[in-house]
Write a structure and sequence with these properties.
Layout (H helix, E strand, L loop, with lengths): L5 H4 L3 E3 L2 E3 L4 E5 L6 E6 L3 H18 L4 H17 L1 H12 L3 H20 L7 E4 L5 E9 L2 E5 L7 H12 L3 E5 L6 H13 L6 E3 L4 H10 L3 E7 L2 H13 L3 E5 L4 E5 L5 H13 L9 E7 L3 H12 L20 H17 L2 E4 L3 E4 L2 E7 L2 E4 L16 E7 L2 H9 L3 E2 L1 E5 L3 H10 L4 E4 L15 E2 L13 H4 E9 L14
């Protein structure tokens, strides 16, 4: 078992380069066994005021640092994360519950993002373009927005934070981060890494607390000009409404109801592997998790039989035990939500083919475990096929043909990730065109995004912005158009041009 340091057990805010004690604390629990592992501040709004004012001052100097030099700090941070990968991974599993191989993958994603965004320090490309007037130069350039607020969830406590903070920092912004109080250790570790790497005071600050108080204070503070939020659709809508009143830029990523489409020519063995990984990995607690399987009637029975057989072999328990493939649910609230949807599915007439119950794991009786669950005989309009459950629950939906499968995939309010298994190249290209999601996989599950491509979705999943990839820079920069007239006379665009 990993041992926590004194600092990790008694967490503090990180404001203007100082570790600040907060007397009001909450307990942090290991979801695998229900034991208290740390105490995290439950800050008041005044902490955001302190952080925002110091960030405003620090950012003015940081913006003047050449971008390649800013990038050097990301390279250092990435190198330190790489050196500490195993301990970071174990800490992540301890507070989040996901199995250790998944935790290692998430930490690696943060490392990859550090090196990728550091590379942008030598790019941050604008454009040069011909002017319509003689002896005149025209170009555009990216400029930092100023102070950025990021609000991150518990299910990917370091990966999502790096998607947001690293492009913001390399672009010349200061970042105020409100992590989830369910998983505060990763925020503490990343802040200490940046402190050790030499990031100037005030450029990355961590303030723990509730969304109602700390999150609201971030939204309301004039100095914070961008809010980047990942979380529920309901909360995201409130964030968008409040930011809209202030003409504040907001980036939202709000979940999904993702489907794997299985056509009659699919490799069923590969399909089963893809479903198991994307439906039950992280115990289904991913915004990209597969929660629907849309299957052609010709292979529906075969797929169901093989899937049920494979589900029986999934080992469940403490994620720090490498023999386990599924870890716990984050807390009792998460379990209660899943149980509610199990009852909803039964009431709607779906057949509960497997699972559906909270589990008690030997030696971990106080942990939060749930059986991998499969509903069959599900119609596309049922609530279990429309609403995000955020647990290891899959609905099997039968269709007659390819066109029905595409329509079924698109008939939800979300549009994050989709997948199709087929050997027909024509269907592959039709699917990637017609699936209304921000991410499309072919002959793979609904998870596995890579950091150099944009991450996000359509419809109720977000508001058009993207995390990750070079597109993330658009959230944290403003475009500036620059005109240099070296004609020695006043030239008036559109007026002094020859018709």
């Amino acid at each position: 078992m990993i041992t926590l340091t004194k600092e990790e057990r008694n967490l503090k805010n990180f404001i203007n380069g100082e570790w600040t004690e907060v007397t009001n604390k909450e307990k942090v629990y290991n979801p695998a066994n229900g034991e208290v592992i740390a105490e995290v501040p439950n800050s008041g709004a005044e902490a955001i005021t302190q952080a925002a004012e110091s960030a405003r001052i620090a950012q003015r100097e940081w913006a003047l640092v050449p971008a390649p030099q800013r990038a050097e700090l990301l390279y250092k941070a990435g190198t330190m994360m790489k050196e500490r990968k195993e301990r970071l991974s174990q800490l992540l599993t301890l507070e989040n519950g996901k199995v250790i191989e998944e935790a290692r993958g998430e930490v690696q994603e943060g490392i990859d993002m550090a090196f990728y965004m550091a590379g942008e320090g030598r790019r941050l490309f604008g454009q040069t373009t011909p002017s319509e007037l003689k002896d005149k130069f025209a170009m555009s350039e990216r400029c930092p927005v100023g102070v950025v607020g990021i609000i991150t969830p518990w299910n990917f406590p370091i990966a999502i934070a790096t998607w947001k903070s690293f492009p913001a920092i390399v672009s010349g912004n200061a970042v105020i981060w409100k992590p989830s109080s369910e998983t505060p250790l990763m925020a503490n570790e990343l802040a200490r890494i940046f402190e050790e790497a030499g990031l100037p005071k005030g450029i990355l600050q961590v303030v723990y607390g509730s969304g109602a108080i700390v999150g609201q204070a971030m939204i309301e503070h004039d100095a914070i000009r961008v809010i980047s939020f990942t979380g529920s659709n309901e909360t995201g809508r409130k964030v968008a409404t409040e930011c809209g009143k202030q003409l504040k830029k907001v980036s939202l990523e709000m979940g999904g109801k993702n489907a794997v489409i299985v056509m009659e020519d699919a490799d069923i063995d590969l399909v089963v592997e893809g479903i198991l990984w994307s439906a039950f990995g992280t115990s289904g607690q991913r915004c990209t998790a597969c929660s629907r399987v849309i299957v052609h009637k010709a292979v529906r029975k075969t797929l169901e039989e093989r899937l049920l057989k494979a589900m029986k072999n999934l080992t469940i328990g403490d994620g720090l035990d490498s023999n386990n493939k599924i870890g716990p649910i984050i807390n009792q609230t998460g379990l209660d939500k899943i149980l509610k949807y199990i009852e909803i599915g039964k009431e709607e007439g779906a057949k509960l083919a497997a699972g559906g119950k909270q589990l008690t794991v030997e030696n971990y009786e106080k942990g939060f475990y749930f059986e991998p669950t499969l509903f069959t005989d599900v119609s596309i309009d049922m609530r279990i096929a429309q609403e995000e459950i955020f647990g290891p629950v899959v609905s099997l939906i039968e269709v007659n043909n390819f066109e029905e499968a595409i329509a079924a995939n698109n008939k939800v309010k979300y549009g994050l990730s989709s997948s199709i298994f087929t050997k027909d190249v024509n269907r592959v290209f039709q699917a990637q065109r017609d699936l209304d999601t921000g991410i499309v996989y072919v002959n793979a599950g609904t998870t596995g995004a890579e950091i150099h491509l944009p991450f996000g979705g359509t419809k109720g999943t977000g508001n058009g912005h993207r995390d990750s990839g070079v597109q993330a820079l658009d959230v944290f920069t403003e475009w500036k158009a620059v005109y240099v007239d070296y004609s020695g006379k006043l030239q008036r665009a559109q007026i002094d041009t020859d018709a």
